[in-house]
Design brief:
Helix content is 31%, strand content 27%. The chain folds into two domains: 2-153, HUPs (Rossmann fold, 3-Layer(aba) Sandwich); 186-308, Riboflavin kinase-like (Elongation Factor Tu (Ef-tu), domain 3, Beta Barrel). The strands form four sheets. It has a six-stranded parallel beta sheet, sandwiched between helices. It has helices at 29-41, 56-60, 72-81, 94-97, 101-112, 134-144, 163-171, 175-182, 198-201, 289-308, and strands at 2-4, 18-21, 47-53, 86-91, 117-121, 125-126, 132-133, 147-151, 155-156, 159-160, 186-191, 207-210, 220-228, 235-244, 255-260, 271-282. The protein has 310 residues and is α/β, with parallel strands linked by helices.
Length: 310
């Protein structure tokens, strides 16, 4: 998959794609339906996705609480798995934010990227002040020489599939409900960083990952599926993970600590993708280390049983 970040300098062979436009946070089933429409719209055209970095919400409200379901690298990995050939990851800056709807359609979509067809959701808005609607884009496309399809919103069990609904499910400790809307397990992807080695001292060495900048699921212990994406231990594993601030040790900064079953090796610097399968229990503070270890033994037994059935 080619990643293109500047619409000003597009090679001739990179023009003519059929593209789904949106933020694609989580790459959920609704996003996938839009991508499938782009795949089918123009026979023989390359399949693309056009998105923005940073997310416009981060640009306009940089101090708002973290809301992203995935980082840009995780989004790219997921889109590549879906067969996307071009990811137009445009820099969302003052120039782009200040474009009128017509200027965006002409300067970016038609003249800049040279798109053959565009797919957007029914609730799509674009241009300065979100002044442009999906119907406006249809009209601009007819004038400027690219096709436009407006996709209806996808429903799952009578509810609209959306990143907002997925965030709510995760905040409430319902990762399976989130997965039903995502079409895959909610995954936290990132580099393994150094920790305080407490897990190793307790007989449960963990791979520690930052969750800074991401929407925070319910704090607690989860049964997880772990993919090591690079390095000598690359592969898929089962495990149990603690997500939160470690109240037993007076922690303050949330992180993700994953114990991988039946694993031995050094994962520092490796990239992990940790899929949340089931919420086992909330974070607790125990009377002592003996009680904590006993609880961890029980958590891992329960996680093994759950994951064996997957």
């Amino acid at each position: 998959m080619r990643i293109i970040r500047d619409y000003h300098f597009i090679e001739p062979q990179d023009r003519g794609a059929s593209v789904a436009i949106g933020n694609f946070d989580g790459v959920h089933l609704g996003h996938r339906s839009v991508i499938d429409l782009a795949r089918q719209a123009v026979p023989g055209a390359p399949l693309g996705v056009l998105t923005f970095e940073p997310h416009p919400r981060e640009y306009f409200a940089p101090k708002s609480p973290p809301f992203r379901l995935m980082r840009r690298t995780a989004r790219a990995h997921r889109l590549e798995k879906l067969g996307v050939e071009y990811l137009y990851e445009l820099n969302f800056n003052a120039a782009l934010a200040g474009m009128s709807p017509e200027a965006f359609a002409r300067t970016v979509l038609a003249d800049g990227l040279g798109l053959s067809h565009v797919i957007v959701g029914a609730d799509f808005c674009f241009g300065k002040g979100r002044a442009g609607s999906a119907q406006d884009l249809v009209d601009f496309g007819r004038e400027m020489g690219f096709g436009v399809t407006v996709a209806s919103l996808l429903e799952e069990s009578a509810n609209i599939v959306s990143s907002t609904a997925i965030r709510a499910a995760l905040s409430e400790g319902r990762p399976r409900d989130a997965a039903a809307m995502l079409g895959h397990w909610h995954r936290i992807e990132g580099e393994v960083i150094g920790g305080e080695q407490r897990g190793r001292q307790l007989g449960y060495p963990t791979a520690n990952m930052s969750i800074e900048g991401l929407h925070l699921p319910a704090f607690g212990v989860y049964a997880v599926l772990v993919d090591v994406l690079d390095g000598p231990h690359k592969g898929s594993y089962h495990g149990a993970a603690s997500l939160g601030v470690r109240p037993m040790f007076n922690g303050e900064i949330p992180n993700l600590e994953t114990f991988i079953f039946d694993f031995s090796g050094d994962l520092y610097g490796a990239t992990l993708s940790v899929g949340l399968v089931d919420f086992l229990r909330p974070e607790l503070k125990f009377d002592g280390l003996e009680a904590l270890i006993a609880q961890m033994d029980g958590d891992c037994d329960k996680a093994r049983a759950i994951l064996a059935a997957e």
